[in-house]
Amino acid sequence: MINANRRLLSALLGSLSLAGLPVLAQPTWPGKPIRLVIPFPGGFTDNLGRLVGQKMGESLGQPLVIEQRPGGSGQIAASEVLRSPADGYTLFMIHIGTHAINQHLLPKLSYDATKDFIPVTELARVPNLLVATPTLPVRSVQDLVALAKAKPGSLFYASPGNGSSGHLAGELFKSLAGVDIVHVPYKGASESLQDLLTGRVHIMFDSLAQGGPQARAAKVQGLAVTSTQRHSSFPEFPTMAESGFPGWNTGPWFGLAVKSGTPDEIVRRLQIEAARALATPSVRERLAALGATPGGSTPEEFAGFIKNESERWGKLVREVPIKPE
């Protein structure tokens, strides 16, 4: 009788396995800390990863350990994720540059954004804020355009790196305004901001999350937001449309991805936990204060959004045209 019961139990477990029940496929996940690889240290990318990662870690029962891998417009971080097993223990903080711009701008990209990664969920969107170093004699976008036209090639604009939203916004500004300004790419938002504060570079399309508080503290000059409407958290800044650029709408978005081949049940669990973290009042309040809109989309929704963004920015890269530095 005991042997018969064992055979029956074995057959039952086998049938459940064939049915693909996720609990049986990954009975102990997560059984150890999870890495969150961030391509751009400092600034909003880093802050968002730590904010959401802490909440997800509390819910999952395992910490999300932040691992900074800057360089190569996100390629170094992407390569680190792809060297890791597809087991859900390595997450990639992706954004507009890594997954909607790089493939159109960088001719020898070391990864395929569509084939190599599975989108998990969008975490947040935040508009850019065009900021200027305090010593620059401008008080508006119109002033900036006039100065750039009067001194072609003498103004430098910073970005967190080639292929970032700040880079493309700068190139779009050059094209629409008809000005000659020089791009200076950095390895992250914090580094570019430091040189802006000291006047080594003159302007940048910073994230509203980072640039807004700096402008309110009078450390930089806030000239215009890149959203279609003024932001409720920073209503003092006019839009680029109000400043002479009708229809302007740019800004970074951020999300989580995992290596392709990661079990679907783990992807779903990660999305659920991220959405739960983004729904907590403390996280929402913090994001609102930074000018960000929280996400929480399903993997399918996020994949569709990335596809549309890639098509949009690819069109801009071809039409301007924008060349890699």
pLDDT averaged over residues: 89
Return the domain count: 2
Oligomer: single chain
Looking at this structure, what is the CATH superfamily of the largest domain? Bordetella uptake gene, domain 1
Number of helical segments? 12
Strand segment tally: 11
Percent of residues in β-strands: 15-25%
CATH class designation of the largest domain: Alpha Beta
CATH topology of the largest domain: D-Maltodextrin-Binding Protein, domain 2
Radius of gyration: 22 Å
Structural class by SSE content:
alpha/beta
Q: Overall 3D geometry?
A: globular
Helix content: 40-55%
Tell me the series of helices and strands, N- to C-terminal.
HHEHEHEHEEHEHEHEHEEHHEH
Low-confidence stretches: 1-25
Which sequence of strands runs across the widest sheet? Answer: 2-1-3-10-4-11
Most strands sheet: 6 strands, mixed
Topology overview:
Layout: H1 2-19, H2 22-25, E1 34-38, H3 43-60, E2 64-68, H4 75-83, E3 90-95, H5 96-105, E4 117-125, E5 128-132, H6 141-150, E6 156-159, H7 165-177, E7 182-185, H8 189-198, E8 203-207, H9 208-216, E9 221-225, E10 253-259, H10 264-279, H11 281-289, E11 293-294, H12 299-319
Parallel strand pairs: 1-2, 1-3, 6-7, 6-8
Antiparallel strand pairs: 3-10, 4-10, 4-11, 5-8, 5-9
Helix pairs in contact: 3-10, 5-12
